[in-house]
Amino acid sequence: MADPYAAAPLDLKSQELRLIQLQPSEETEMIRCSLRSYSLQNCPPYTALSYCWGSIRDCDDIEINGVRCPVRENLWFFLHQMRLQRDYNPLWIDAICINQSKVRERNHQVQIMGQIYSRARSVFIWLGKADDTSDIAMEKLRKRKPFEIGKSNFRKIWNVQQAQSILALCERSYWQRMWIIQEVMLAKEVVIGCGSMILSWQKLVQLIKNLQMIVDRGRDIHTPCAHAILTSPATTIVKAKSERDRSPRPLGMLLRTFGEHESTDFRDKVYALLGLAKNGSSVEINYDKSEKNVLLDVFHHERKRVGWGVKEKDDLIRFGQLLRNVLKVPFPETEIYFEMANPRTVDSGITNKRTAYHCLFGFLGCSYFFPAGDKWRRHCMEHFGGMEPPRWVRCSQCELPEQRFDDGWEAWNYKLYHATQHQGLLQSTSWKSCGGPPDFYLIEHLWQRRLIDDLDLEELTVGNHCLTMPPLTRTRASQVERCEKCSADLERPVLPCLDEYRYELWDKEGVDYDPTRSSVIKVLKKHRSDSEEIYKNWVSLHRHGSQGSFGRPSHLIYLSNLRQASQDNFGIPQAKYGRHEYPQYEVPGKHDIGSSGRYQRDDFV
C-alpha cells in the first residue's frame, strides 16, 4: 500500500512539522490534499486546527499526496467546508500531519505541540456540523453588540430560543476535550467555526463578560440560561484564556483546573497540559509507557522542581493523590511516601543494565539473579509453584507498611515492582540485603501451601531465618550426622507433624490465626531446643579430632548429596548445595512446575 508520508518525511532530531494544503476540486469530487514537511522556524504561515476527532466508526476517504486515506467524519466535514469557501491556505491538523502509526513520530510531534500552536497564525476551533440550533446561536453571537462601558444597560439580550441555542453550543463535546486547553490557550488569534458559519473568539469573550455583569447585578432572573452558560465547559476555557498572563503555571494547578476534561488516552491527561506547565518541556513524552510509568515520571519531575522540605512534602503527597485521580491508576499513600524518599535516577524508574536482581527468596537458599527486571519478577513468582501468592505484602527495606489486596497475584505484582525501586539493595544474596529481615507472614504462607516442610518452617522462624546452612534438626535417613571413628549416628528428636495447624482457608480476610500461630511456634521452639541440646551433647562425646566447618569436628559427616553449582553470570563460584524434594502435592495454580508434581529447591550446605 502506498504511503502518503513517503514524500514528506520528518527529521525527528530537529523541530520539523508537516503542513497540509487543500487542492481545488469540485464539490462532487474526492477531497484532495498535498502534504509537505517544513522546519518549524522556517515554514509558511499556517492555521492550526482544534477539533474533536469523533468516532472511528464514521470515516470518509480523502486523497493525500495521491494516496487514498480514510479520515473521521468530523474532519471530513471541516475540509469540505474549507473547500466550499475556497480556503486553500496551509493547515496543521494532527490526525493528518502526524503519522499516527509511528510512536516515535507521535512522541516527537506531541513534544513540540505547544510551539506548533503558539507559532500558528491562528487557531481554528471547529465545533462540528450545524444542527437545528447552531445557526441560531452563531448568528445571534455574531450580530450581538456588547454592553457599552459605564452604562448599566441590562435590557433583554435574547429570547428563550436564542438562549437555549447558545447554551447548546457552549456544551458541545468539543469543549470537554483535554487537548483543546493547550491549543486555545497558546493561540495568538482564535476563530470559531460551526457548519458554514464563522465567529471571532472575541464575540464569545464579550458574551461571558456581559453575562457575568448581569449575574453580579442580580438581573439574571430576566436573562434565560445566564447561569447555565456561565458554568458551561466553554466558559471555563474562555475565562482561563482571559486570565492567562502568558507565564507557565505549575502542573498541579493545571490538573486541578482541567483534570476532568476528557481524553481517549489517559496519558494525554498529562501530556496535553505540558505545553502550559512550568518546566513541562523537561518531561519526556513517550506513548510506549504505561499510565503508571507516566505518573511516576511526572511525580518525580515535580519532586525535583519543588524540592524536599516539610511544606514540600505535604504538597507532593497532594500532587501524588491528584495524579492518581486524574490518570485512574493505583498510587496509594504508602507508595507515594516511598517514591518521595527514593528519587529515580534513570528514566525507566528501575536500575541500569549492570544491576543484578537477586531472588527475593534468598532465605530459601535460592541464589539466582537476573540483569533484567521482567525475568527476575517471573522467577520470583515461580517460587509459589503456581499457587496464589499471599495477599498481605510488606517491604522491609523501607517504611512501607503492610498492605492487603483482594488478589495475591496483584499483591505480588505490586511488591515486586516496589522492590525494583530499591535498586542496589537487590545486589546481594544474603537475606539481610536481599529482601531484608525475615517476612514471617511469607514464610508461614509457604508452609501453609506446603511449599516448605515443617523442618524448614522451624529453621526459618525459630532458627537462623534462612536455609543457607544445614538445618540442625534434620532427621531423615539420608540427612544425619555420623562419626567416622565409631560409626555412631546422631539421633535427633522427631518433630511432630504440624498438619493439624494448616488452614484450607489460609490468607482469607477475617480469620484469626494468632492462637494457632502461637501454638506452632511453641512446638517449634521446644523441638529446636531439644535438638540443640542433644546435638551439643553428641558432639562433646565424639571430639576425636580437629574442628571443621560450621564448628563441627572434621570427621563428623553431614550425609547429603553434594554437588558444585555452576558459576553465575559474573563468574563468581557458588556454594555447594544438595537437592531437596518436598512431599508430592496437587498444583492448582497457574505455573507448570514439572512432570514430577514436586516442587524442588536447592538447599545450600
Automatic annotation (TrEMBL):
InterPro entries: HET, HetReg/Transcr_Mod. Residues 584-605 are annotated as: Disordered. Residues 46-183 form the Heterokaryon incompatibility domain. PANTHER family: ANKYRIN REPEAT DOMAIN-CONTAINING PROTEIN 39 HOMOLOG-RELATED (PTHR24148), HET DOMAIN PROTEIN (AFU_ORTHOLOGUE AFUA_8G01020) (PTHR24148:SF73). This is HET-domain-containing protein. It comes from Lentithecium fluviatile CBS 122367.
